From TrEMBL:
Gene Ontology terms: biological process: DNA-templated DNA replication; double-strand break repair
Reactions accelerated catalytically: DNA(n) + a 2'-deoxyribonucleoside 5'-triphosphate = DNA(n+1) + diphosphate
Key words, A-Z: DNA damage, DNA repair, DNA replication, DNA-binding, DNA-directed DNA polymerase, Exonuclease, Hydrolase, Nuclease, Nucleotidyltransferase, Transferase
Name of a matching Pfam family: DNA_pol_A_exo1
Cross-referenced SMART domains: 35EXOc, 53EXOc, HhH2, POLAc
Lineage of source species: Bacteria, Pseudomonadati, Pseudomonadota, Alphaproteobacteria, Acetobacterales
Domain spans labelled 5'-3' exonuclease: 24-281
InterPro entries reported in the protein's UniProt record: 3'-5'_exonuclease_dom, 5-3_exonucl_a-hlix_arch_N, 5-3_exonuclease, 5-3_exonuclease_C_sf, DNA-dir_DNA_pol_A_CS, DNA-dir_DNA_pol_A_palm_dom, DNA/RNA_pol_sf, DNA_polI_H3TH
Function: In addition to polymerase activity, this DNA polymerase exhibits 3'-5' and 5'-3' exonuclease activity.
Provenance organism: Rhodovastum atsumiense
Membership in a protein family: Belongs to the DNA polymerase type-A family.
Name of the protein: DNA polymerase I
Stretches assigned to the 3'-5' exonuclease domain: 354-539
């Protein structure tokens, strides 16, 4: 186990001969080609081959097929495709699949290429006009069962799950997980043979199967379980208790019967190719290698051991097509030369075999090699994900692509391993050697694990995760698996394939070294290759300063913050939990009184029945499950219309969340070794550069509520110390005034005026002196709402006024500050052209969906584009302050420690005698972190608890 987790299944194999003779009984593997190409297209990032043709779905299909051919999962193999959109089902119901949109432009050319891929592998590709691929799969499955054999369907399509029975199973091609009767029962609540009855009742909006309105999967499963099948359900409907469900079953009985005929797969389709012709055969290596090179799938050629089949020059790997405005295609560039010399290997080197290091002498030899190379990638294996509690199980080193090793330290049942203390002592000089660059993927995690094992902090270092994040925040994830697939076209070995899953999973300490070594050493190998690929791009994308001066320098700062943790008062938390529980009980009694009967307030289903069936409140909408929707937006809308019960439920939910997430959970999160709570700061999650925290998440504690303050009161200083809060004041509004160049706002900030009162005065023509608090509140809502691209509807809901009146306020605001509207339009246009927006400090924030045809999704992306430079700019500023503060505190001779960062606030712990000096220094450093056309202002507070300090 290491800093990257759950990953796609590996495709690292070479092509081997398949069975030449038909085994008895036969095992037929049926690949749902049509279904898989859509899943692969949406699951994988965009890719194009050298001539600009999109190939992401083809790449996913090719690697899946290579894995199946290698692993001999069957004696017979075929890929089944749809021949066209019109089948016999359209004769039954002319609206069947009628609303389905045309495939995306980037997918259309890939249909033919997937068929070419099957031919290159020598696998039959089967289709039949007038029949769907699912019917052919059902028919072939029946045929092989009648022959006494077995069928495995490679698909995750729910329609095919009805075929599962003894002799027929399924395999999810993306997750590489089997699907059997237990999985169908868990997902749908019925056995596979009953799934068609459930589908008939619930219908299918994707395929335009009508079903019975108001019957979702859960209700359908309950009815089928109770009555047996569709006809029995329909027969029983007239005798059911009067309800909308009963009426709908009676009114739509024929639609349900038609739906059953549409969803039931037919197993009597003619077989275009006989079973005996589907025997697995060895691919033609020359033909396969040539085809793979034509697509630019160089890494697949290497993984399949086809390098020797090279009659022609190798084509470049898939890359980005020339991008038009807003396309945002992802690059798959060839690995460039490393800026640091390496002794051997190249970008096309094979992934392994790797060495297992079990003696100190062998480890020292690797360390010497790393020292000579001048660069080494490191990765740790642990027995857990909490860096403050997990133990080091082993570590990996890579000195060149394909040249890596694994050093086991705590594996069970291994005769010879290097003792942990000796391994750390040998590694320490390398970690601090100024002439050797240490490369990590998520360095903060690995360095924390090594530090807790006694190692010094590594320096100098690079982090491939942060290199990627500095350039493409919001464009894609930055975990190892996604980056390897994106930039190296390599699917990493999965953790599940090494340790097992579910009850069969074993700790990494029990994984045999012959399985642990390829998995662990590959991590270091991939990290080094990613670094070689991504590091040179920092200059091209103008992200070098952001990475080197901010993101990389923040690693040791956050590491020390996580190690420091923060003290919480466990007794206060327990008392708080009891208080919340008592208040919740009082609230429940009031809610029951308003409802007229008792019910489980925590049950969305029961709450929906109370609100919309019993109380008949307007605006209810049923979800796909058939239950009424009761999320916070629904309850908030009802509360704003004056309905008391949903307002009380919202209060109850807020208290329940605080009780479970903080009052109860924080006690269990106290580290027994330190007596403190240690949150983990995620550095590469958000699209704007903001940090996020987990275990516990400290960013969701309400700031301005009594209960939120109560939670913060439990965060306390050690005896003799105090907590110091330093919070940027209205930083995003100040950035708005700066980037949009609004003279009136800049003047107001420079003069230290009440910015909301000034806005109200400017927009509504009211003197600031003696201003009505409600008018100021409206101006404040507009000020902050504009930052997030608020609509008239949203502002109206917030202020409790009609959308028309809210629109008049927004129009008046823009009339007074036309520069803000100009900034917003300019920023949206930048996002449409480039695919990203830029903060004042050069951070690129990618905006997916900015060219969406769907209006709601496009509007959401536009609001992101408007806000990202401001929220991202604020994140950049506080990060710049954080990397300067530790040195400033040391130089001032202060003992304060930085503990937490929550949005625009930093929390310190300091001896009481140094509190004022620490607060003063924090304010100075934070206010000097950036130079804007408006002043930065930091407000500080001191107290025994976080609540007092804030």
């Amino acid at each position: 186990m290491c800093s990257r987790r759950a990953r796609a299944a590996a495709t690292t194999t070479d092509v081997s001969p398949s069975a030449e003779a038909v085994a008895t009984p036969p095992h037929l593997v049926l690949i749902d080609g049509s279904g898989f190409i859509f899943r692969a297209f949406h699951a994988l990032p965009p890719m194009t081959r050298p001539d600009g043709t999109p190939v992401n779905a083809v790449f996913g299909f090719t690697n899946m097929l290579a894995k199946l051919v290698k692993e001999h999962v069957g004696t017979h193999l075929a890929v089944i495709f749809d021949a066209g959109r019109i089948t016999f089902r359209n004769e039954l119901y002319d609206l069947y699949k009628a609303q389905r949109p045309e495939p995306p432009e980037e997918l259309r050319p890939q249909f033919a290429l997937v068929r070419d891929a099957t031919a290159a592998f020598g696998v039959p590709a089967i289709e039949l006009a007038g029949w769907e691929a699912d019917d052919l799969i059902a028919s072939y499955a029946r045929c092989v069962r009648e022959a006494g054999g077995r069928a495995t369907i490679v698909s995750s399509d729910k329609d095919l799950m009805q075929l599962i029975r003894p002799g027929v199973d399924m395999l999810d091609p993306i997750k590489q997980k089997p699907i059997g009767p237990a999985e169908v029962m868990e997902k749908w609540g019925v056995a596979p043979e009953k799934l068609v009855e459930v589908q008939a009742l619930m219908g299918d909006a994707v395929d335009n199967v009508p079903g019975v309105p108001g019957i979702g999967p859960k209700t359908a499963a309950q009815l089928v379980t109770e009555y047996g099948d569709l006809e029995a359900v329909l027969a029983a409907a007239p005798g059911m208790k009067a309800s909308k469900k009963r009426d709908s079953l009676i009114a739509h009985a024929e639609a349900a019967r038609l739906s059953r005929r549409l969803v039931e797969l037919r197993a009597d389709a003619p077989l275009p190719t006989p079973l005996e012709a589907l025997v697995v055969r060895q691919p033609d290596r020359d033909r396969l290698a040539t085809w793979l090179r034509e697509q630019g799938f160089r890494s697949t050629v290497v993984r399949l051991g086809l390098e020797d089949q090279a009659p022609a020059a190798m084509a470049p790997p898939p890359t980005a097509a020339p991008r038009t405005a807003g396309q945002g295609m992802l690059a798959f560039a060839e690995t460039p030369a490393s800026p640091v010399p390496v002794p051997a290997g190249g970008p096309g080197a094979a992934y392994g075999p790797y060495e297992t290091v079990t003696t100190l002498a062998a480890l020292q030899s690797w360390i010497a090699e790393a020292t000579a190379a001048g660069v080494v990638a490191l990765d740790t294996e642990t027995d857990g994900l909490d860096a403050m509690r997990a133990a080091l199980v082993g570590f990996s080193l890579a000195t060149a692509p394909g040249r890596a090793c694994y050093v086991p330290l705590r594996h069970e049942g291994v005769a010879e391993q290097v003792p942990v203390a000796e391994a750390i002592a040998a590694l320490a000089p390398l970690l601090v050697d100024a002439g050797v660059l240490k490369v990590f993927q998520n360095a903060k995690f690995d360095m924390m694990i090594l530090a807790r094992a006694g190692a010094p902090l590594a320096a100098p270092l690079d982090d491939s995760m942060l290199i990627s994040y500095a350039q493409e925040a919001g464009r894609h994830g930055h975990g190892m698996d996604e980056l390897a697939l994106l930039h190296l076209q390599h699917s990493c070995i999965s953790y599940d394939s090494v340790t097992g899953t579910g009850r069969a999973r074993v700790p990494f300490t029990q994984v045999p070294l012959e399985r642990a070594t390829p998995y662990a050493a590959e991590d270091a190998d991939v990290t080094l290759r990613l670094w070689r690929t991504l590091r040179p791009e920092l200059r091209v994308t103008k992200s070098l300063a952001l990475y080197e001066q901010v993101e990389r320098r923040l690693i040791p700062v956050l590491l020390e913050m996580e190690r420091a943790g923060v003290k919480v008062d466990a007794d206060d938390l327990r008392a708080m939990s009891k208080d919340f529980e008592a208040r919740m009980a009082t609230m429940e009694a009031e809610i029951h009184r308003l409802a007229g009967s008792a019910f489980n307030v925590g049950s969305p289903k029961q709450l929906g029945e109370v609100l919309f069936d019993h109380m008949q409140l307007p605006g209810g909408k049923r979800m796909k499950t058939g239950a009424w929707g009761t999320d916070s937006s629904v309850l908030q809308g009802l509360a704003e219309k004056g309905h008391e019960l949903p307002a009380r439920v919202l209060e109850w939910r807020q208290l329940q969340k605080l009780k479970s997430t903080y009052a109860d959970a924080l006690v269990g999160q106290i580290n027994p070794e330190t007596g403190r709570v240690h949150t983990s700061f995620a550095m590469a999650i958000t699209s704007t550069g903001r940090l996020s925290s987990t275990d516990p998440n400290l960013q969701n504690i309400p700031i301005r509520t009594e209960e939120g303050s109560r939670i913060r009161r439990a965060f306390v200083a050690e005896t003799g110390n105090v907590l110091i809060s330093a919070d940027y004041s209205q930083i995003e509004l100040r950035l708005l005034a700066h980037v949009a160049d609004i003279p009136a706002l800049k003047e107001s900030f420079a003069a230290g005026e009440d910015i909301h009162a000034r806005t109200a005065s400017e927009v509504f023509g009211i003197p600031m002196a003696g201003m009505d608090p409600m008018t100021r509140r409206r101006a404040k809502a507009i000020n902050f709402g504009i930052i997030y691209g608020i609509s008239a509807f949203g502002l109206g809901r917030q202020l409790g006024i009609e959308p028309g009146e809210a629109r008049a306020y927004i129009d008046a605001y823009f009339a007074r500050y036309p520069g803000i509207r100009a900034y917003m339009e300019k920023t949206k246009e930048e996002a449409r052209i480039a695919g990203y927006v830029t903060t004042p400090f050069g951070r690129r924030c990618w905006i997916p969906g900015i060219d969406e045809k769907n209006g709601m999704r496009r509007a959401y992306a536009e609001r992101q584009a408007i806000n990202a430079p401001l929220q991202g700019g604020a994140a950049d500023i506080i990060k710049r302050a954080m990397v300067r503060l530790p040195a400033a505190l040391r130089e001032a001779g202060l003992c304060a420690r930085l503990l937490l960062q929550v949005h625009d606030e930093l929390l310190f712990e300091a001896p009481q005698a140094e509190a004022e000096a620490t607060a003063r220094l924090a304010r100075e450093v934070m206010e000097a972190a950036a130079t804007l056309s408006v002043p930065l202002v930091v407000e500080t507070g001191i107290g025994r608890s976080w609540a007092e300090a804030h």
